[in-house]
Amino acid sequence: MPLTAGAAREIITPEVGGLLFGYNDHTASQSIHDDLTVTALAVESGGAAFLLLSATVCLVNNDLANKIRAKAGAAAGIPAGHVILSATHTHSGPCTEGFSGWGSIDQGYCEKIFVPKCVAAAQGAMAARQPVKVGVGITESKVGINRRQLGRDNRVSLGQNPWDMYDSTMTVVALRGTDRKPLANIIHVGAHCTAAGINYEITRDWAGVMADRLEEESGAMTLFVNGTLGDVAPRMANGGSTGDIKHAMEVGGLAGIDAVRAYKTIRTYYEEPLALNVGDIEIPFEPTDALKYRQTVVCLGPVALVPFPFEVCSEIGLRLRHYSPFAHTLLLSCTNGSNSYLPAQSQLCRGGYEVDSFRRFHPGQLPDDTDRLLIERNLELLESML
Fold first, then answer.
1. Taking CA atoms, which of 104, 277, 337, 349 is between 20 and 30 Å from 84?
2. Which are the contacts of 268, defined by CB distance < 8 A and separation ≥ 6?
3. What is the tens place of the pLDDT at every residue in 82-125?
4. Got the DSSP string for 255-304?
5. What is the Cα–Cα distance from 79 to 307, expressed in whole angstroms?
6. CA 381, CA 326: separation in Å to the nearest integer?
7. Which helix (H) or strand (E) holds 156?
8. What DSSP designation does 83 have?
9. Cβ(328)–Cβ(298) below 8 Å
10. 135 CB contacts (<8 Å, ≥6 apart)?
11. Residue 256 phi/psi, 5° resolution?
């Protein structure tokens, strides 16, 4: 059976005047800098199919993510477990998460705009499928920088840490029709979409500029999925982890150059095999209970998509990629739900914002080796697909 794919997009911009989610001062929007979107990519081969939804919002809570996946799956004619809903993590959009100190979820927005537009994009992508081939390009990108700034007193604060790790690999997965016409691109790289800072404009932040640039260059609808952003800020000249709308445009312009460079390294397109694996993830709380969720990993030839419902720190993604049997293993943060940060075990001793959030978010205490447990379980799912 041939590999088929289709893409579709819907605008999900909220009305001006609503609260922007991502900082705890509950800033209300005053203007629209660029429209928020949900972009859907449907891929099918030999009876196996999956749907990737890239939504330009900050986070999507577990219940809402499950609802959207179920509705989008039903509309597309595939199981909910075959729908991957990824938030790009812009801090300049509506509240689709909701937790104490950060504002309540915007139920009106979700019911009137977000959920129905996700469903519409899913339907459109499935209806637009055509035979395709796949190409993969990579490049080194410095769009991100580790944000766990270490002071002389050994305390960690949010800023920039030029000597700590981040994942510098940017991957572009390109799909084009058998007529050689570009159909869709996926950009994967990891960094917080916080360059616009505590602003008053609705915006996709730097990642929107990057996606638009590759879309213009290639002529193909382009999705962004955020990688290991947990401890990574956008690299800005001000030395901080946040800026203003001008910083967002600057970072996005540089990221766009990287994305185009990665795209232009693609020389060959193949009709890649598609495979999916669904399994249970269970991490014990201490001393009782457990964090449980249903995991879906997707492999398209040499590319593996591994969703994580966390803001994952960079060491974890690097370790997962190193031990993965697939050449291009893309960890997707903020995907299929939201369970706060996931720091590496090596970071716990120093504390800091990501560690404090990890320990505060859950009613029980996740074990210090949660990173190892998640890596091992996902590697098992990947290895069983060979």
1. 104
2. 135
3. 999 999 999 999 999 987 667 789 999 999 999 999 999 999 99
4. HHHHHHHHHHT----B---EEEEEEEEEEE-BSS-EEEEEEEEEEETTEE
5. 16
6. 12
7. strand 156-158
8. E
9. no
10. 173, 174, 175, 176, 266, 267, 268, 269, 270
11. -65, -40
- Quote the pTM value: 0.97
Distance in Å from the first CA to the final CA of the chain: 19
The tokens describing 61, both together, are: 């809570």
Q: Are 97 and 357 in contact (CB under 8 A)?
A: no
133: Cα within 13 Å, side-chain hemisphere: 11
Any long-range contacts for 278-281 (C-beta under 8 Å, 24+ apart)?
A: 278/81, 278/82, 279/377, 279/380, 279/381, 281/374, 281/377, 281/378
Read off the amino acid at residue 275. A
Query: Token match 């790790």: residue?
Result: 165
Angstrom CA distances, 73 to 51, 81, 121, 200, stand at: 8, 8, 11, 34
* Nearest C-alpha neighbor of 87 from the set 22, 178, 170, 159: 22
Reading the block at residue 207, the tokens are 């990642």
For residue 115, CA distances in Å to 10, 68, 103, 106, 120 come to: 11, 6, 19, 12, 9
As separate numbers, helices (DSSP H) first and strands (DSSP E) second, the chain gives 8, 20
DSSP labels, 202-256: E--THHHHHHHHHHHHH-SEEEEEE-S-TTEEE--TTSSS---HHHHHHHHHHHH
pLDDT surpassing 90 at residue 207: yes
| CB neighbourhood size of 249 (10 A) | 19
